[in-house]
Design goal:
Strand order of the largest sheet: 1-2-3-4
Number of strands: 6
Number of helices: 2
Radius of gyration: 22 Å
Shape: elongated
Helix content: under 10%
Largest sheet: 4 strands, parallel
Low-confidence stretches: 1-30, 255-262, 270-297
Strand content: 5-15%
Mean pLDDT: 81
């Protein structure tokens, strides 16, 4: 079998810049591999199910409403790209950068994005249920109304995020960092927050019913408007400095709390990029890859 990596230049350039394409021209064969440099490419509305993006530069690319279910993105840059309403369910993202990208109202359920960089990205209203995003970076990202229910976000950097009304219920957030985040009316119901950091976060109206807060850092945080907090939860957390608590609750000093965040183990899945008998149809150009010698994996 032959790898498609060598075909990315003609496929990407034609897909990104050819005008007057028919509806069928917008369909790209399953398992096609795309790479190279194509800043500002236009992929909006295309069918890219199962596509492989390998080591490519897609800065400011347009993928509005694009079907990327099961896609594999490895070592590629999508900084400033527009994924509004895109469907990335079940996609796998390894060592990829989405700085300042737009994922508003995108579907990312079940996506694997360990260590991916979403700094400054807009994920307003995005659906990330059951996603695997350990050690991902969301610094200063917009997550208002985003759904992270049952997601794995251990060790994630969420400092400075705007996540008002976001749903982190049942999520794994051990050793995550919400320092100075805006989390008004966010839900952490039944979330695992061992060793998580909330110093300086805005939590008015947030829901912590059933959340596990062992060794969580809540210093310098106003908790007076938080719902669902119990004394047992606070006894396990670190609270000090200027702060306010709900009526009837008291703070323990950090010296009485063992501040040891649990280790975070991250597994980066192996990605095999190969295809057999794949047809790529681009306006004015047809490429067929037939069986042959097996390419690198």
């Amino acid at each position: 079998m032959r790898t498609l990596a060598v075909l990315f230049v003609s496929a990407v350039v034609s897909l990104g810049h050819t005008a007057g394409a028919s509806a069928m021209d917008k369909d790209v064969a399953r398992r096609v591999a795309l790479g190279g440099s194509c800043p500002g490419c236009e992929f909006s509305g295309r069918q890219l199910v199962g596509a492989n993006f390998m080591g490519g530069n897609f800065v400011n690319a347009a993928l509005v409403g694009t079907d990327l279910r099961g896609a594999k993105v490895m070592g590629s840059t999508f900084n400033g790209a527009d994924f509004t309403r895109a469907d990335l369910r079940g996609a796998s993202v390894v060592a990829a950068s989405f700085v300042n990208a737009n994922f508003s109202n995108a579907q990312l359920e079940g996506v694997e994005a360990q260590g991916a960089n979403f700094s400054g990205a807009n994920l307003t209203g995005a659906r990330l249920k059951s996603s695997t995003m350990e050690a991902a970076v969301f610094t200063n990202a917009r997550l208002g109304g985003a759904q992270f229910h049952s997601a794995s976000l251990e060790g994630a950097r969420l400092n400075g995020v705007q996540a008002q009304g976001a749903d982190f219920s049942d999520a794994g957030l051990d050793a995550s960092d919400f320092t100075n985040a805006r989390l008004q009316h966010a839900s952490f119901r039944n979330a695992e927050l061992h060793g998580a950091r909330f110093a300086g976060a805005q939590l008015d109206g947030a829901d912590f019913h059933g959340a596990e807060l062992e060794a969580a850092d809540l210093r310098n945080t106003d908790l007076s408007g938080v719902h669902g907090l119990t004394q047992d939860q606070l006894d396990d957390a670190c609270l000090s400095g200027p702060m306010r608590l709900p009526p009837g609750l008291k703070a323990r000093g950090c010296s009485q709390v063992a501040m040891h965040a649990p280790p975070v183990h991250i597994h980066i899945p192996r990605i095999d990029v190969h295809a057999s008998g794949v047809d790529i149809h681009v306006p004015g150009r047809d490429v067929h890859v037939s069986d042959g010698d097996e390419g690198p994996r």
